[in-house]
Amino acid sequence: MTELRDPIHSSPEDVRVTDDEHTSSSQARLVRAGLRSLWREDAALAAMLDDDVDYQRDTLALIASASVAHPSVLAAGAAALANVTAEGYPGARYHSGTQQFDAVETLAVARAKLLFGSQYANVQPHSCSSANLAVLAALVPSQGTLLGLDLDSGGHLTHGSSASVTGEHYRAVHYGLDRAGRIDFGQVAELAQAHRPQVLIAGGSAYPRTLDFERFRAIADSVGAYLLADISHIAGLVVAGEHPSPIDLAHVTTTSTYKQLGGPRGGLILIGKEASAPGPSGRGTLAGAMQRAVFPRVQGTPNPSSIAAKARAFDLAAQPDFARTVKLIRQDAHALATALAQLGYPLVTGGTDTHMVLIDLSEHQLTGVAAERALESCGILVNRNRIPADTKPPLVTSGLRLGTNIAAQRGMGPEAMAKCAQLIDAVLSTTVADSDNGYLVDARTASAVSTEVKHLCARYPLYEESDR
Ligand code: DSN
């Protein structure tokens, strides 16, 4: 087996592995055997999985909550390490035979801390929703109060929405946006004074502007609340220095690992300089409270292969290539927003500071769902999204949410984004509403746009041929 001199900072220069070593490795033989068996014994399922690779290659994904995982992240996620059952943490497990997994989890934690500049990291949450549940379980007593961004204003389900267990088990109070569509800090401060929440949450799923963590922290401090920063959508921007970091401003930060980090499905909890601060009710430390909250309070066994994939993704996200891609993500979003606005599409907040662009369709004849489906039929993937003061239900909506993570990962730049805006406009301006949420695309436009999308995708391949 190849010795890694410095696994935390591993790089191709540090480790020389021959082709022979990796193709004949135990893991490679296992994966090949698995694929052979899948194709021989379950060809229908195998074909579905293969079709999706081709579909991803040939479609223009502008999904704001997605990024593409590097083949090595996918490979780590397919590891036989998944067979290991290991409740607890490295050095304190409830099962035997966890040596390799202990090493992998320790590596993932070290890489997460290095990447975000945090003092504490927990890599076990199965998603950011699980991470948020764990943080709230630790910091908010039963029937206690949390204050978060309203779902319709761009918040997240786990920030106290009535549709989520967080809105059921806690008293959830919500702040919204001002007339310009920015977070209304006056309202945040007023609600904090009036309701004295145990936790103030900064972050959301559909807020395209910079989050002012310093202001959030000042308000949290004024009422003795913990500040939780949920950076699921902007984690890549944060590590690349394209968005201010909350790590030392918030008491606790959470993120998903797939939205913008190119990692596997999963979540992460981080603490900066508050790691050794007293935990809730003055007992233990904040970091200790998070450890107990994830296991045993909210989760049982972790997913070892997903943690291996996280370790790989954190290493990739620390490389200069990732920072270059993230810079492009923001440039692309700006170019996309500018081109859409020039084409006459109103944008929530008038533009973007991040990777995300929200189109307001409330004056358009198409609903969000009809527009989403019309674009999908031409190979352009976006998602319907409620916008502030939306009058339509969540499955219909009056908005579209777009993001440039995957476009930038494919190497598309601002010019390609201007082209995307034209293609989007070509579809939306020629599609007519048919019944409530149906649509009728103009056949000639659909055919022309589909062809252009295929050309664009071929010019900017998702995975290089040599990776496939
Ligand atoms: N939170 C959902 C989103 O933003 O799309 C799923 O990750």
Written overview of the protein:
There is one protein chain. This protein has helices spanning 19-23, 26-41, 43-58, 71-77, 99-116, 128-139, 165-169, 185-195, 213-222, 235-239, 286-298, 304-317, 320-342, 368-376, 405-409, 414-430, 443-459, and strands at residues 60-61, 88-89, 92-93, 120-122, 145-149, 171-175, 199-203, 226-230, 252-256, 267-271, 356-360, 380-381, 383-384, 399-403, 432-434, 438-440. It is of the alpha/beta class. It has two domains: 83-317, Type I PLP-dependent aspartate aminotransferase-like (Major domain) (Aspartate Aminotransferase, domain 2, 3-Layer(aba) Sandwich); 320-467, Alpha-Beta Complex (Aspartate Aminotransferase, domain 1). The strands form five sheets. The protein has a seven-stranded mixed beta sheet with strand order 4-10-9-8-7-5-6, sandwiched between helices. Helix 9 (213-222) links the parallel strand 7 and strand 8 (226-230). Helix 2 crosses helix 3, helix 5 packs parallel to helix 12 and helix 13 (320-342) packs parallel to helix 16 (414-430). It is globular and about 65 Å long. Bound molecules: D-serine.
